[in-house]
Amino acid sequence: MGATGSGQSKLRMGEGQAARLCADLAPGQSIAGGRYSVRSKRLVEFRNKAGQYLSLVLGDRTGDIQARVWDNAEALAAMFEEGDVVAVTGGVETYKDQVQLIITELVKCPSEEVRREDFLPCSQRDPDEMMQELIGVCKSVRDPALRKLLAAFFANRDFAAEFKLCPGAKVIHHAYLGGLIEHTLNVARICDNVCEIYPQLNRDLLIAGALLHDIGKVREYSYDTNIETTDEGRLIGHVANGYRMVTEAMEKIPELTPEARLRVGHLIVAHHGDPSMEAPKVPMTVEAVALHYAENLEAQVNRFLSIIARDRGQGKGWTEHDRLLNRRLFIGDAEGQGAEAETSEPPEAD
Questions:
Q1: In 10 A of CB 4, how many CB atoms?
Q2: How far apart are CA 142 and CA 208, in angstroms?
Q3: Residue 155 sits in the same domain as residue 277
Q4: Inside any domain, residue 227
Q5: pLDDT at residue 340 above 70?
Q6: SS in 3 state form for 125-144?
Q7: Does one domain contain both 69 and 194?
Q8: Domain membership of residue 213 as a residue range
Q9: The domain that contains 145 carries what CATH number?
Q10: How many whole angstroms separate alpha carbon 285 and alpha carbon 320?
Q11: Is 245 found in the same domain as 124?
Q12: Within this chain, do residues 136 and 278 fall inside the same structural domain, yes or no?
């Protein structure tokens, strides 16, 4: 049977046991009415005959799967876009050691039936609890001017609602709802520990920088059923956006001295550490270098843990090769102790 866009009533989620989450899909299974977000979509020319087939990456909150539509692909592709949610019927098979879904029926789901939480992964921590913790960190800053700067963002109800749901990235680290606030809190914790080891650091300044360093990401990502980079994110980026947002807020706080504004701004523009990592400036204050390494440490540990969690349970001691890291990661025994890498290439910032 060729794939079709008709028969929507037959493809509703939850009718029987054949609708499955991506993480549960295995060769030999069938799917009827499984709902997935369209992560990517493209028409590809057949190698051995005229016409095109439809190559898809579908996903839900548990992961992604490659999918193919062999028949009626051109007409079907015109019925939905990337980011839409589709209900599918088909079967799961293996091709070149990769699990893929062969679709025989597909329809676009009405937007009013779609819940974002079903198609995007979420932080394991409650976002409201994280926001309360973040407010507590803000209150621990003793400098009244810096505390006022933090309140300009996190005491703003609309901004706080965005910040606590925003992903930390599209792919590399904390790529899930609540990822940004989780990353921010962890960076602040690391910076607090650094201040205990090096009491010469200005804790108030460093903690303020930790809480504000990625603030531009609320304008860098959109997240409905997919995490996508906005036009503003592509053209300007979260570092420049964050610097502009913080600078505008500082202009309304006369208690902040000119030097304090410079130091805060430098923390924002230098937190990636190196121009090759899209940092406008390299760290030139002790607080800036501490923030850079704290931020990168937290991001890379989360990145490694995410890759290991993705590939654990496959009966192998190593993960699959990660294209961005250009290496496989060591899982080890069943308990997965350790995460040593094959190479010693420097980590990448995001």
A1: 17
A2: 11
A3: yes
A4: yes
A5: no
A6: CCHHHHHHHHHHHHHCCCCH
A7: no
A8: 120-302
A9: 1.10.3210
A10: 39
A11: yes
A12: yes
Encoded tokens for 110: 């009405």
Number of domains observed in the structure of the chain: 2
Q: Can you read off the two tokens belonging to residue 199?
A: 């009491």
Domain presence at residue 329: no
pLDDT confidence tier of residue 16, bands split at 50, 70 and 90: very low
Which of 39-43, 257-261, 321-325 bottoms out in mean pLDDT, i.e. has the lowest? 321-325
Q: Show the tokens assigned to 181.
A: 């606030």
Are 45 and 171 found together in one domain? no
Residues 98 and 162 placed together within one structural domain of the fold: no
Long-range contacts of 276-284 (CB under 8 A, 24+ apart): 277/348, 277/349, 278/237, 278/239, 278/349, 279/239, 279/349, 280/239, 280/240, 280/243
C-alpha span between 46 and 52 (Å, rounded): 5
List the CATH number of the domain containing 71.
2.40.50.140
What is the model's pLDDT at position 334?
52
Q: Which amino acid is at 285?
A: T
Q: Indicate whether 141 and 257 sit together in one domain.
A: yes
Domain end marker among 70, 91, 116: 116
What span, in angstroms and rounded, lies between the C-alpha atoms of 216 and 248?
A: 13
**Cβ(107)–Cβ(90) below 8 Å:** no
pTM: 0.80
Same domain (yes/no): 148, 175: yes
Decide: residue 250, CB within 10 A, 0-12 exposed, 13-18 middle, 19+ buried: buried
In this prediction, residue 342 carries a pLDDT of: 44
> Is 67 within the bounds of a domain?
yes
Residue 13 domain-assigned? yes
Strands (E), 1-95: 30-45, 52-60, 63-69, 85-95
For the chain, give the percent of residues with pLDDT over 90.
Answer: 57
Q: Do residues 250 and 256 lie in contact, with contact meaning Cβ atoms separated by under 8 Å?
A: yes
Instruction: Render pLDDT for 194-249 as a digit per residue (tens, 0 to 9).
Output: 999 999 999 999 999 999 999 999 999 998 888 889 999 999 999 999 999 999 99
Q: Which of 1-10, 126-135, 298-307 has the lowest mean pLDDT?
A: 1-10
pLDDT at position 101, please?
Answer: 93
Q: Between residues 196 and 171, which one has the greater pLDDT?
A: 196
